[in-house]
Amino acid sequence: MKRKRKRMSTITRVLLCSWCVLVLVLAFFIVNWAMNLSADRDFTDADNIPVSSDGGRVTGKVTSPATEDKPTATPEPIPEVSFSTEYVHRDEPIEERSYTSRTACGLRYPKLDGAAGKAVGQVAHDMLEETLTELVRGGGVERKIVIDYEDGETAGLVSVLFYIVKERNGQKETETRQWIYNKKKDEVVDAASLFADRAYLYIAQQVNDAEGVTSFTGTREEFGEYLLTADGARFYYELDGTRRSVDIPYIALHTYMAVTVNGTVIAERIRELDPEKPMIAFTFDDGPHYQQTPRLLEILEKNDARATFFVLGDRAFNTESNKKTVTMVYDSGNEVASHTYSHKDLKTLSVEQLTEEITKARDNLFALTGEYPTFLRPPYGNYNDDVKAYCYAPLITWNLDSEDWKSRDTDTIVAQVMEKAKDGRIVLMHDIHWFTVDAVEILLPKLKEMGYQIVTIRELFYYQGLELENGKVYFGGFY
Q1: Residue 21's pLDDT band (boundaries 50, 70, 90)?
Q2: At CB < 8 A and 24+ separation, what contacts does 120-123 make?
Q3: What pLDDT does 38 receive?
Q4: Which terminus of the chain is more exposed, N or C, with fewer CB under 10 A?
C-alpha cells in the first residue's frame, strides 16, 4: 500500500524564506562591522607601515575605499641630509643624496678628470657602502650618513681628506680618512706612510714653539690628519679640546717624503739657459775646504758656470771658516747638496744609523743656508734598498768620474774629463784638492768653447724635464 507524501503548507514556506533573508541581512552587517573595525586599527609595527606610490611613508590610519567620509592618508617626506658649509672645495663637488635601508645618506667627492676621477668616485662610494652597513647593523630608528671632504693638490699629488659623519638616534660621530692620488703615475699613494717618522718630530717642534707648549712628542697619531695644499702640508691636531692646524712648507718637508713634491726640481735659483745647447754638471764632494772652495767659486763665476757641492755635514760645521765657506757657496748661486754627515758607507748602517747620518747633515746645511738640501749623494756611490727607502731624497751619483782621487794630477784630470764629456753628463770631482781646482780652471774655458753650459744638478734636470723621485738613483740626464 502506497504511503502518501505530506505536502508543506504555504504558510510554512513563507516563514522559511523570511528566516533565510533575515540570516543573510544579519551576516552582511556582521561582516561590514568587522571590516570597519580592521580599517580603524592603528599600525604600531613601523616595518609594516604602507608606502605611498611616490615612496613616502603613509601616516595615520588606513581607510576603506567604501568610507569616503574618512580623511585621506598623507605621505611623509623622505628624510634628507644637509651638507656643511665648513669645508672648502677647490672646484664644484659631485653631490649625491639617497634614502636606503631606512637611512638618509649624503655623499660629496671631488670632480676629477680621467683615472683620478674614476678612482676617487670608487673610493667615495666604497666608504658610503661600508659606513651604511656598519650603521644598519648597529640598529636605531633615525639614521643619517654625511660624507664630505676638503681637497688640495701639489705637483701632481691630489689630496682629499674625507669627513664621515654618522648619526643614529640623534647621536653623531665623526671620523676622517685620507686619500692621495699621484696623477703622474695614475696610482694611489699610501697616505699613512707618505711622511717619515722624522717629519712628525719636526712638526711637533713647530707646534710646540707656536703654541708655547711641550706636550707634543712627534708621533704619527698626534698629526694623523693632513692635507696637501699648493703651498705646503696642513697638519691637524687637538689642543685643549679644539681642533687646530699648522701649515708646513714643502721646502722643510720634502726630504721626509716618500714621494717628492718638487715637480721636476724646485724652480728657484735656476738660470735662464739655452735648452738647445749641451749641458754638463760639475759636482764636488767632501767639502768644504776653507781655501780651495773659495778659489773654485771665483773660477766658476769667471766662466759663467755653476756647480753642485755635495757637502759633509760635520765638516761644514767644524770651524767658523768652513761655515762661512758653505754660506759663500750658496750665496754665489751654486747649489749646496748633502753628502751625509760623516761620510760613512750607508750600506753598512742600520736604518736608525743611516737616518741619523742623513738628517744631521740636512739640519746643519739648513742652519747655514736657510734651505734644506734637495739632493743626496751617498758616500762611495753605495746604496741598497734601505738607503733608497729612508733617504727621502733623489740619490745623485755620476756617469763621468774625473778620477782626481786616483791620479791626483791636474793634466790627467783634464784629459779624463775632455775625453768623456757629453751632453747630460754628471762629473765627479772633489773641491778639497788643489790639483782638482787647477784642472777646473783649465777645463771650463775649453768646454765653453765647445758650446757646453756648465750647470748645477738642479738646472740639468730642470731643462731635461725629468721627474725626480725620492729614493730613485740618477746617474745623469736623458733618462
Answers
A1: low
A2: 120/158, 120/160, 120/179, 120/181, 121/94, 123/179
A3: 42
A4: N
Reduce the DSSP state of residue 431 to 3 states and report it: coil
257: its cell numbers? 717624503
Residue 63 per-residue DSSP state:
P
The helix (H) or strand (E) run that includes residue 388 is helix 385-390
Which residue in this structure is represented by grid cell 749641458?
279
Residues 6+ apart with CB under 8 A from 76: 56, 57, 58, 59
pLDDT at residue 125 above 50?
yes
SS (H, E, C) 116-162: HHHHHHHHHHHHHHHHHHHHHHCCCCCEEEEEEEEEEEECCEEEEEE
Check if the beta carbon of residue 106 is closer than 8 Å to that of residue 88. no
**Could you say which DSSP state residue 48 is in?**
G
- Show the cell assigned to 298: 771665483
Distances in Å between the alpha carbon of 426 and those of 273, 422, 443, 475? 17, 9, 14, 7
How far is residue 380's CA from residue 10's CA, in Å, rounded to a whole number? 132
Q: CA–CA distance from 380 to each of 6, 205, 258, 344 (Å)?
A: 135, 34, 23, 9
Confidence of residue 20 (pLDDT cuts 50, 70, 90): low
Residue 302, φ and ψ in degrees, nearest 5: -60, -30
Residues 6+ apart with CB under 8 A from 105: 81, 96, 97, 98, 99, 128, 132, 144, 145, 146
Residue 35: partners with Cβ closer than 8 Å, 6 or more residues away: 64
Q: Supply angle C-alpha 446, 449, 454, rounded to 5.
A: 75
Q: Judging by beta carbons within 10 Å of its beta carbon (0-12, 13-18, 19+), is residue 31 exposed, middle or buried?
A: exposed
Backbone angle region of 374, left / alpha / beta, with phi > 0 → left and psi within -120 to 50 → alpha: alpha
277-335 pLDDT tens trace:
999 999 999 999 999 999 999 999 999 999 999 999 999 999 999 999 999 999 999 99
pLDDT digit string, tens, across residues 135-154: 888 877 788 999 999 999 98
- From the centroid of its chain, how far is CA 291? 46
Residues with catalytic roles: 285, 430
Give the pairing type, strands 308-311 and 426-430.
unpaired
259 pLDDT tier (thresholds 50, 70, 90):
low
Region of residue 169 (phi > 0: left; psi between -120 and 50: alpha; otherwise: beta)? left
The grid coordinates of residue 330 equal 750658496
